[in-house]
Design goal:
371 residues, alpha/beta, ten-stranded mixed β-sheet, two-stranded antiparallel sheet, 43% helix, 18% strand, binds zinc ion
Length: 371
Amino acid sequence: MTFPVTRLRRLRRTAALRNMVAETRLTPDAFVYPMFVCPGEGVRKEVRSMPGVFNLSVDEAVKEAREVHSLGVPSVILFGLPDKKDEVATGAWAEDGIVQQAARAMKQEIRGLVLMGDVCLCEYMSHGHCGIVKATPLAKSLGAAVIDTLHSAPTIAVRNLAEKEKAIEKVAAQVAESAKRVDFEIVNDASLELLAKTSVSLAKAGIDIIAPSDMMDGRVAAIRNALDEAGLINTPILSYAAKFASGFYGPFREAADSAPQFGDRRSYQMDGANIREAMREIEADVEEGADMIMVKPALPYLDVIAAARERFDLPLAAYQVSGEYAMIEGAARNGWIERERVMMESLLSIRRAGASIILTYYAKDAARVLA
Ligand SMILES: [Zn+2]
């Protein structure tokens, strides 16, 4: 049937009709609220690039989590800002680590709240990478350093002997710098042990769901083994299965103080160009024992969410990341978009793409709208 028999506008005439035929619905029980726990007491420090999101000390985090739960949001995911960082991420797996403290307090104070624990090392490593870093001096001969320097250095014009000597000194310094350059590698297998240790420690502290976000190969199996060996057979794993190296993480790095001190994360997080590889990443995590899978970020990767929904039968989560939040907040604060409308539309699009669980900084505000 076509027009005039078919008129699609018939079912759009009133709000009641539109609501009746809505194919996708948002409910607060789909949301998970991310929280950043920091040392101290009574601390409530707003993240500059994420207005409305705070670094909270344990006491304040408990209050916030109670509010989140009372709005019908069933779960929070915890990130930690330790007071000290080192080369083995002690703060991630220590019994009195900041997330462990928060988990114990929340477990005791808020009945029924599902606690997710992000498992990664970047917030706790002095270098800010998600795994153990091995530094290797580049075995470069002095001759190769001279050639590299001369190839990349601009021609220097000299007018007298003094300037000539200065130019030689400058080039010599560049050659020396080039000869002692160090190559960094994020060591996969050695990092697994720390990730597994962190997972066990978090689960023992009361974290209900372990959520590894590091993107090392084999981490889900390593974590599953360690949990089982510790008798934590009922602790599920939500793997950040397809996590892309993304510019949208910018504000989070301020919130969690986790920016890498050198290099970037492209050697372990995924290339945004690849959807088939994303399916392989998810498949690997499923085979290793993941109970739930996640795609991150959400909005720029809705097609990946849809493809994952089509192909896998596990519960599927998506993370509406800090940059997605910051874009909406920034534009709304400038009066360029309607905040609430865009907030709900973005969440609806993630749900429509196929994610049944949405990690979002809008969990509280969206739950209020839906109430
Ligand atoms: Zn990390």
